[in-house]
Amino acid sequence: MTAALALGDDALVLSHRLGEWAGHAPVLEEEVALANIALDLLGQARMLLSFVGDEDQLAYLREERSFRNVQLVEQPNGDFAHTMARQLYFSIYQHLLYEELATGEGEFADLAAKAVKEVAYHRDHAEQWVLRLGDGTTESHERMQLALDALWRYTGELFEPVEGVDVDPHALRDGWLAAVTSVADRATLALPSGPQSGAWAAGAGRQGLHTEPFGRMLAEMQHLHRSHPGASW
Amino acid sequence: MAAVTADQTTQGTAGTADEAEAGRLAAFDATVAADDRIEPRDWMPDAYRASLIRQMAQHAHSEIIGMQPEANWISRAPSLRRKAILMAKVQDEAGHGLYLYSAAETLGTSREELLDKLHAGRQRYSSIFNYPTLTWADVGAIGWLVDGAAITNQVPLCRCSYGPYARAMVRICKEESFHQRQGYELLLALSRGTPAQHEMAQDAVNRWWWPSLMMFGPPDDASAHSAQSMAWRIKRHSNDELRRRFVDICVPQAQALGLTLPDPDIRWNEELGQHDYGEIDWTEFQEVLKGNGPCNEQRLTQRRTAHENGAWVREAAAAYADKHAARAGTAGTAAQPVEATA
Fold first, then answer.
1. Are A29 and B98 an interchain contact pair (Cβ–Cβ within 8 Å)?
2. ipTM of the complex in this document
3. Which B residues 176-195 touch A at CB under 8 Å?
4. Which superkingdom (chain B) (predicted)?
C-alpha cells in the first residue's frame, strides 16, 4: 500500500496548495483553471487513499511524519511563477508515470488510464504558462527563472523508487528531463545545471521527512476535523 | 427577435431625426411588450443600456467577490467530499462571473473597465458578501439561504428582456440550484450530527437569515430602479414580492432541517395565504451598502490585491501573444490562447 499512499498523498497535498489560490488568481480564467486542476487531483487522491483505507481518516488523522508525498508538492504557492514551476515539474512527472502505469497490468492501471487524461491537461496548462512567462516580459522572465531554480532541488525525489510502483525510475527521469528541457528552451529559460549538479538533491518525503511549511499546512487542513472526533460531515 | 436593428434604422428615411428616434423607440417598446428579446445589435434607449450594464456588472462582481467568503473554508473543509464540493462551487462562481462579464460586454463595455470600477468602489456587489464566514456551518448557510435568495431573484431574470442576460441566467440558475441543494444537505448533516454540530448550524442560520433577506434590496417604496426596470421587463417582480416568496419557501425548509429562523414574528397569515415576518434592520443594510459592513474593506482589498499582484502575469500573457502574433505575421493579440485582461 506504500504506492497508493505515496501517489495519493502527492495528489492530496498538491490539490490543497492549488485550492489556496481560490480568490487570489491573476485572472478569472485562472480561478477556473487552478480550481479545476485542484479538483482533478483531489479526485485522484480520494481514489488512491480509498485503496488504503478510509480517505478521511488518512487525510485528517495522520501526522506529518506519516505522509508519503514528495516535498515538491508541499512547497508553498509563492508567486504565480512558483506555482507554475511546481505544476510543470510535477505534471510532467505524473503524466509520464501514469502513462506508464496505464499500459501495465498493475493495481493502478485503471486509475492511471482515467487520470492520465486529466494530467495531460494539467501538463499542457503548465507548459503554456511557462512559455508565456518565460518568453513574456523581462519581469516575467526573471520571475519564471527564479521559480524554476528555487524548486529544482525538490525534483530529484520524484525519481526515487517507490515500493509497488512498477516503473523504471531511470527511464522516467530521462523522459522527464527531456520534456522539461524542451519547455525551458522554448521559453528562453535555463534549467539549473542538471541532474549531476548539487542542486539535484533528493528529498525524503516518501519516508515521511518533510519541509517546515508542511506541518502548518496540515494544521490548517486537519483542525476542524480533529476538533470534532467521530463526527460525520 | 427584435423588430428593428440599429443598422436598419440608420438608413436614410424621409422623416426627421425626431421621427426616426420615435420610430426606434416604438419598435423597442413593441419588442419588450411582446416579451421578445432585445439583442446586442438592436437599438435600445441609452438609459436601458446603462441600467443593464449597472445591474449585470453588479451581478458579475457579486459572483467574484462571493468566492471569498466560501474560499475562506476550502483549506479547512472537514472531509474530502465536502472539500471537493466546495472547490467545485467556488470554481462555478468564477465561471458565472465570466458569463456575466461576457454578457455585459455585448453592451459595449469591457471586463477590464468593469473590474476597474469595482476596484475603485464605483460599482457595487451584493451586500451579503460583506459578512464573514466564521464557522464551517456558514458554508451550508450560504448555500441554503444566500444561494436560495439568489435563485429566487434570478429565476425571473431567465425571462428578462435582454437576450444575452436572460441566456446567461438560464445556465447560472441550473448550477445555483445544485449548490443550494448541497448547502441544504450540508446543514442537514450538521443539524442531525453531534450537539456541537447542531449548535454550529443554528448559529450560522441565526447570523445569515437577516442578511439574506436584505439581498432582495430595499423595500418597494424605497427602491430607486424598480419601476423602470419592471417597465423594461428587466425585472419581473418587486423586491418585497420576491422577499416574501423566499420567506414562504424557507419556513418549511427550516422545519425540515430541525432549525429555527431567528425571527419571533414569523407566522402564517391565513387571510393572505403567506407568512408575515419581522422588520428588517434597514439601518444595518444602509451601513453595509455604504461600505461599513464587517468585511467590506477586506473583500475589496483582497480583490484589488489579487488584481495588482496578477498584473505582471497578464502583461506577460499579452507580450507573449504579441510576439507570437508578430512571428506568425498576424496582427494584434487576438490569437492569444488565454484571454488576459491586461
1. yes
2. 0.96
3. 186, 189-190, 193-194
4. Bacteria
